[in-house]
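Forwarding the complex inputs:
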Amino acid sequence: MTKKDSWLVWLFLAPAIILVGVLMYYPMVGTVIESFHSTSFINPNPQFVGLEVYQRIFSQPEFAQIVVNSLVWTVGVVVLQNLLGFFSALLLNQHLPGQGLMRALVLLPWVLPGVVAAILWRFMYDPQLGLINSFLIGLGLSDTGFAWLADPNMAMASAIIAAVWKGFPFSTVVYLAALQNVDEEQIEASIIDGAGPLRRLVDIIIPAIKEVMLINFVLTTILTFNYFDMIWVLTRGGPQNATHIFPTKIYDLGFGQFRFGDAAVYGVFSILVLVLLIALYFTVQGSSRQRRAAP
Amino acid sequence: MKRSLLAAAALALLPGTALAQDQVTLKFWDNQQTESGLSEYQRAAVERFEAENPGIKVEVTTIPYPEYQQRLLTAVQGGNAPDVSTLDQIWMAAFAEAGAIVPLDDMAGEAGITAEAFFPGAWESANYDGKLWGIPFNVDVWFFSFYNKALLEEAGVDPQSLSTWEGLKAGAEKLTGNGRYGVGLFGHRGEDTVTVLNSFIFSNGGKVLNDDGSCALTEPASVEALEYLASLVPYAPQGILNASSGSMRELFLNGSLAMEFWPALEQPTLKNSNIDWEFVVGHAPEGKTPVGTYGGWNLAVYETSPNKEAAWRFIQFMTREDVNGDVVDLIPANVKAAEAFLNENRVGADRILEHLNNASPRPLSPRYLEVSDIQVTLAQDIYSGTPAQEAAEKACNAINALN
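Prediction (whole assembly, two chains):
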């Protein structure tokens, strides 16, 4: 590349850099700056207060609850979604009749718009009119059914189930692609050697797709940590904050209560968590590339 | 060559620019609360306004309620606010404090617009810090208790007995059982939860905030009201903490809920149903009068508007006696327009008017939305069994910490 070409490269890159800078990094930096100020809608001239807002928010029991909720939500959804995704991929990878149709059907929850899926689950969870309670009452498993989303002890689990249903096809697709790349000869050889299905799974299939699994875990963790619409539509973070996670809390503080400064603190914390997760993602991806590149 | 082309283009544009200056385009934002086809009437009213005010063109934007608050907030923060918009009564103080809207005292004084033309609570909601920040546009009151006549008859409950707290509880008890519920309570994160809570507090002579802004929820009148409300839980459908007035509607319409709390706006929906219904005007302890909680919208002019004069003319037009009733789906805030509107569109116009005149607004605080959030938690606490005194103390600690 000549020197003359280098300015051309920058010229072509400029629109992307400007867009990413203006739409992503500028607001992100703005959020960090805002978090050091006492600012809200009714206080349009922010005062620099340093770490005061952080101190106030970190000392509230609500913050600890949001951290715990986010952890339970993310771990719950990611683990279940990956397990379900992995096993449905294993099933779809068998040469069974109607496989093409099944593959298309499995994708259905994933292609539904998020809000539509959430509304669907809200109807199903309705304590009086919902499908789930009618089913349980019909089977004689319960007299009156359960208040799935209104009971602080059950709301998070209910939201997790809905999110797993919505998200598992993503993992299925990723795992299915990985499974199709597992060396057939190795599997055939192991069958000849007398390895049963479990042995084949543990000793051949899982080691072969381990890297994809790791990357998918990190990727679904990022997506789940940031997942807003399911919880917002189902419970708005309630009851009694039992399902409030970072994205719903940030929205509620900023737009629901006009408290921009407080929302910014939650936002910065959320950015830090995401930066760590993204760093993990690149580390995992980088190490798997290196391994592949090694002779 | 290029320069001469540019000059020619600029010249060609000039007459157009001059014309555009004569024509004022007013940006008016409103929330779209129901699917009643209101916008058609609003459009007709806007055409009438444009005919009466040549030179002013109105560009109407309606935004669904759930997004409206966010859109307005973003517009104000980004410097793209409309010229004039409806504002929920509970946002007025915050928008005034933020410097987003302008005081209208001088213009109202010149135009002879005074409190007398509007419902007292609605006018009060447009005033903050000694100034007038909006003109009441529409109102309603939470709540009227709508009941299913057939279910009450079957259970032998006299509808008039429901007006008192004692009667409501006894009636709710009789009406509950066999898959049916006496009364629908809701405690989700929403203003309907707060307005019902407030109405019970107001009807017992209690308050949410004292005049100095401190919390009044631990006063005996308020705590008593909270205790009473919690005592109705056994007669309500389960799932209160995530239920809204909307989810109760479905149960009322399918005949499994005997009584529900709604504003008068619910009447058109009920009229279209198969349910034979009537209503009582809220509930109060024996010897006291039920006091409702005001809801509704005011019209305000934005600080950034270059067309304040035109915006003010538009507000005067929209709240006029002969126009106000045509452009609202709640109840016109103009009392004379409301009388005509209620007689034509609602059952029990006199009772609605009386309840409107008695009603109290929610606290007029610039931090109202935070107070409201705390009150939702209070409602959820008492509905899930926390003793009223304890829940009220927790709420008051949180409210007083805001100051």
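Residues 230 and 370 of chain B are 23 Å apart (CA to CA).
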